[in-house]
Design goal:
The protein is an alpha/beta fold. It has one domain (2-280): TIM Barrel (Alpha-Beta Barrel). The chain has ten helices and nine strands. The protein has helices spanning 5-15, 27-40, 58-71, 86-95, 109-124, 160-170, 194-204, 218-226, 236-252, 258-280, and strands spanning 2-3, 19-23, 44-49, 76-83, 99-102, 129-134, 174-177, 208-210, 229-233. An eight-stranded parallel β-barrel has the order 2-3-4-5-6-7-8-9, surrounded by nine helices. Strand 7, helix 7 and strand 8 form a beta-alpha-beta unit.
């Protein structure tokens, strides 16, 4: 069942849980994500990140995401993750994505505000939800670290009053915030500032989004959700699970076919996604 982000986050709010967003980078990941959500009977967000477009162009993977969502037995939102260019946002809207993220968080506040307003006006006219970001993770979407002298994560944490003004003026449906997570793989457990979540949630009244969710402990997820996180972006460790399974299959020498490797990766990713969804939906 294809729905937009606003609809899916209303389910999360009603149940005081979060919905997982997983990047569908190909048929193996799409199948893994949908199968996991259906087995647990939970809504899910299928995403295509602009940074992944070099591997699978949105013109190919986008229609596959939408078809999978329409055929799913659970509510599924198809989301453009970290859209940094207007061209990619236009393409997602034309293809039929039901949610887009405009990530202008690296720009000065006024530029972020103006760009987000433009996207909201365009997307809302098509019944498409919009996620924006305020504050910044010190790692980029591809996992690379921001350059700069002695950067600290807290230097980029989202300010509640700034977030309140931003959300009121732009009309966004969800806000991604910075409170201690990072994209990619963690070398140690992240130190999360739950007060930032609570204060921004109270100031904006909006569902909040955790980026860099892979590697956060179950306790960290649950505390974040209790304070207002309603969407969790999760990809790196799902992908790693697939990679490890594929590697094991290749090294076993049992097959020389790529489809056997992909199938092994799909099954491993499905189990990893199930574990993540179970935590986000308070099933575990």
């Amino acid at each position: 069942m294809l729905v937009n982000l606003k609809e899916i986050l209303e389910i999360a709010k009603k149940n005081n849980v979060a919905v997982g967003m997983f990047n569908g980078t190909g048929f193996d990941t799409i199948q893994a994500i949908i199968a996991a959500a259906e087995e647990l009977n939970q809504p899910v967000i299928l995403a295509h990140a602009e940074v992944h477009n070099v591997y699978n162009d949105i013109s190919l993977v986008g229609p596959a995401l939408i078809a999978a969502a329409k055929n799913a037995k659970v509510p599924v939102c198809v989301h453009l993750d970290h859209g940094v260019t207007m061209e990619m946002i236009y393409r997602a809207l034309r293809i039929g994505f039901t949610s887009v993220m405009i990530d202008a968080s690296a720009l000065p506040y006024e530029e972020n505000l103006a760009m987000t307003k433009q996207v909201v006006e365009m997307a809302h006219a098509m019944n498409v939800s919009v996620e924006a970001e305020l504050g910044r993770l010190v790692t980029g979407e591809a996992g690379s670290k921001e350059e700069g002298p002695a950067l600290k994560a807290e230097d980029f944490y989202t300010d509640p009053e700034e977030a309140k003004a931003f959300c009121k003026e732009t009309g966004v449906d969800a806000l991604a915030i910075a409170f201690g997570t990072a994209h990619g793989f963690y070398n140690a457990q992240p130190k999360l500032d739950f007060d930032v979540i609570k204060n921004v949630a109270e100031a904006t009244g909006l569902p909040l989004v955790m980026h860099g969710g892979s590697g956060v402990s179950a306790e960290g997820f649950k505390k974040s959700i209790a304070n207002g996180i309603r969407k969790v972006n999760y990809y790196s460790y799902m992908s790693k699970a697939g990679y490890e399974a594929a590697k094991t299959e290749i090294e076993s020498g049992n097959s020389k076919y790529l489809h056997d490797v992909e199938f092994a990766a799909m099954k491993a990713m499905k189990e990893d996604v199930k574990k993540a969804i179970a935590v986000f939906a308070n099933l575990a």
